[in-house]
Design goal:
Layout lengths: L17 E5 L5 H10 L3 E5 L10 E4 L4 H10 L3 H9 L4 E4 L1 H6 L9 E4 L9 E6 L9 E6 L3 E5 L4 E6 L2 E7 L2 E4 L10 H10 L2
Parallel strand pairs: 1-2, 1-3, 3-4, 4-11
Antiparallel strand pairs: 5-8, 6-7, 9-10, 10-11
The chain binds glutamine (GLN).
Length: 198
């Protein structure tokens, strides 16, 4: 079956899941690679038509102001909101967590603080315990990462660092302040693709 816009979604039995990665700016390439490593088909998303037939979407890290401007410029804001309304899971990482919050796309009931860990801790790695992730701790790479500042009652915290939520989930939306695409560990992508399988 062709992979272009217009192909039906969710994926048919046997076909790989089609997971979009917003590719306006930032770290989308490494997400595409991780998706491939867990048997999904990663699709670069730049225009509304690219969203047709997706089983899920990743909002990658990068610069949240640039990504937000790009989404507005190319008319992606409403189509992305429609995607989650239609029951497709969305995963945000780092800038993608900011972009998903109540001050931006409004996909999850929370506000975030940009560059929250301050200058001295601009970038760091830490092994964290992530609710729902079996086995060894998850190596989390934080790069000028946000944290969750305020969250609504329906938002589940999956991990905290220094007393601040860095991994959260509400319904079909999950968001992480770190970069799961920057290590060899693909458990988080596998976890997300399982959700997309419904
Ligand atoms: N500090 C960036 C922002 O505020 C996010 C950094 C990242 O995605 N690695 O948009």
């Amino acid at each position: 079956m062709p992979n272009g816009a217009g192909s039906p979604g969710p994926a048919q039995a046997g076909a790989p899941l089609r997971i979009g990665v917003l590719a306006l700016q930032g770290g989308f390439a490494a997400h595409l690679k991780h998706l491939g490593s867990v048997g999904a088909l990663g699709v670069e998303i730049r225009r509304p038509g690219d969203l047709v037939g997706l089983d899920g979407l990743i909002l990658p890290g990068g610069e949240s102001t640039t990504i937000t401007m790009g989404m507005e410029q190319y008319g992606l804001v409403e189509p992305i909101r429609d995607l989650i309304s239609a029951g497709r899971p969305i995963l945000g990482t780092c800038a993608g967590m900011i972009v998903a919050d109540s001050d931006h796309l409004g996909l999850i009931d929370m506000t975030t603080r940009r560059n929250a860990f301050g200058r001295q801790l601009a970038s760091f790695e830490e092994d964290i315990e992530l609710t729902g992730m079996d086995g060894r701790p998850f190596r989390a790479v934080f790069i000028r990462a946000p944290w969750v500042e305020e969250l609504g009652e329906g938002v589940e915290v999956l991990a905290e660092v220094r007393g601040h939520p860095v991994a959260v989930r509400e319904g079909k939306m999950s968001a992480f302040s770190f970069h799961p695409e920057l290590t060899d560990d693909n458990r988080l992508h596998s976890w997300f693709v399982d959700q997309c399988r419904g």
